[in-house]
Amino acid sequence: MGKLPYYAYFGSSIIYSVPQLHDEMEIYLSLNHNGSFLVQDTRYPLETGSLIIIRPFEIHYLFSSVKDHTDRYALRFPVSFLEKMSTPETNLKKLFENVPHHIMLSQHDLIKFSSLMEDLIAPVQIQFGEDIYRTLLLEKFLLAVARKLHDCKTDETAEIETRDRTIMDTITYISAHYLESIHLDDIAAHLYVSKSRLCKIFKDHTGISIGDYMTMLRLQKACVLLKENTMMVRDIASAVGFRSYPHFIRTFTNKIGMSPKKFVRESKK
């Protein structure tokens, strides 16, 4: 059969994650209370039943201590699939674009969603209609998630880990100046804090360095511009703050998993 309309997996090992971003929607389901999950500028402590929605081109990162096992399911699929499922009465794309990043599931919902995920990750059978069957499984799971997201109340949204003011001010500064050549000295001076303390606070909270965050933010902006396909790749590199075109190509390919030109081609499919 052809390519599945989704990528799903179950993970149960100690994980050393790196910041990621991609052009698909992702759903992450935590099966224990180990670790934290960063989405954009917010860190969420993981609990059993944490459901995280990651939208296209959002920086995200799972991190935990060396001793933590992070049991989880994850599913990635194109946003266009939500558009195809939608009707005039039920706009799934709009729903997923506007819900909180993180909600808590009840034990009943966790069992239900886990069972649906098991169906999605089951080995593909080479038989007639398998592609249709897999599409129906994905639709069934997404509809179940959509109903939960639509019905969730304020008290069901997960707790956001308290954010240090220094972290928020750092992210605000980077967001305002990412087009420039930013140095740690500039940020530290702006916040009236030592470089060593600034780096420690940021790494402790987000799990990544300030330099890595700046790089991912620039790549996030680059992905959006590449998707629009109205500028030359070289112009996009400078437009998002990269001073060297070769460095942009190497960094993009390393972090995104493909070259900018291939990313443009894949986006057109």
Automatic annotation (TrEMBL):
It comes from the Bacteria. It holds the Pfam family AraC_binding. PROSITE patterns: HTH_ARAC_FAMILY_1 (PS00041), HTH_ARAC_FAMILY_2 (PS01124). Residues 168-266 form the HTH araC/xylS-type domain. GO terms for molecular function: DNA-binding transcription factor activity; sequence-specific DNA binding. Keywords: DNA-binding, Transcription, Transcription regulation. This is Helix-turn-helix domain-containing protein.
